[in-house]
Design goal:
The protein is of the alpha+beta class. It folds into three domains: 53 residues, no CATH class; 31 residues; 113 residues, Immunoglobulin-like (Sandwich). The protein is 15% helix and 33% strand. The chain is built from one helix and twelve strands. The chain is rod-shaped. The protein starts with a strand and ends with a strand.
């Protein structure tokens, strides 16, 4: 079967079971069945084999798919960058209030009113909060007081609680800050990992 390029006029020879739509000319033109081929083209030895390069319409479709995938990848990249830089998007539990008594007795009970707020938009997973006695506003020479487990906190949710612990009997009498470490076991992915908080005043242990 003889076919002709609709763009440059070149003739080709196809097998009977081949379709012109499956091929294209070397110039990129569309192939159609030749209605009136020239005499010189009647000799099949002078006819070329058409290129099996996909038609231009197929190439356009492939390019569209690639562009679509690129756009999707860029969108997810932008979202990831925003999540990494925006502290208001990620779940971010913060201690917003901490009240301590004036005096406590070694071996006795201490009640610590405190407020935990998720200042992010996304909810948090479960995490731990550790309470410690600190002779100064530093993680040095701290004495473990206790640990509590917090459940999921929704974005913007505030939890007021009164946390109770037993004061260690072997702690040295004196003035101590209450040091609170939110997400003390680093279970959460937060934009702000500065989770150390200290009471505004010291408690006297006697």
């Amino acid at each position: 079967m003889k076919v002709q390029c609709s763009k440059c006029g070149k003739y080709y020879q196809l097998e009977p079971d081949e379709r012109p739509s499956d091929f294209q000319c070397d110039c990129g033109g569309e192939l159609k069945i030749a209605k009136e081929p020239s005499t010189a083209s009647d000799d099949s030895s002078n006819l070329s084999e058409p290129s099996k390069t996909p038609k231009s319409s197929d190439s356009i479709f492939d390019d569209w798919k690639k562009q679509y995938l690129i756009v999707i990848a860029v969108v997810f990249l932008v979202i990831g960058l925003i999540a990494a830089d925006n502290s208001n998007l990620l779940g971010d539990p913060v201690l917003t209030n901490l009240t301590v008594p004036s005096n406590v007795v070694r071996g006795g009970e201490i009640i610590i009113p405190n407020t935990i707020e998720n200042q992010g938009i996304l909810p948090t997973n479960d995490f731990n909060i550790t309470f410690q006695f600190a002779p100064e506003e530093s993680p040095n020479n701290i004495t473990f007081l206790g640990k509590i487990r917090m459940s999921d906190i929704a974005g913007g949710e505030t939890i007021d609680q009164k946390t109770k612990f037993k004061v260690p009997k072997n702690i040295k009498p004196g003035q101590y800050y209450i040091r609170v470490v939110v997400d003390s076991d680093n279970e959460l992915f937060e934009s702000n990992e500065d989770n150390d908080f200290y009471s505004s005043k010291q408690v006297n242990i006697i």
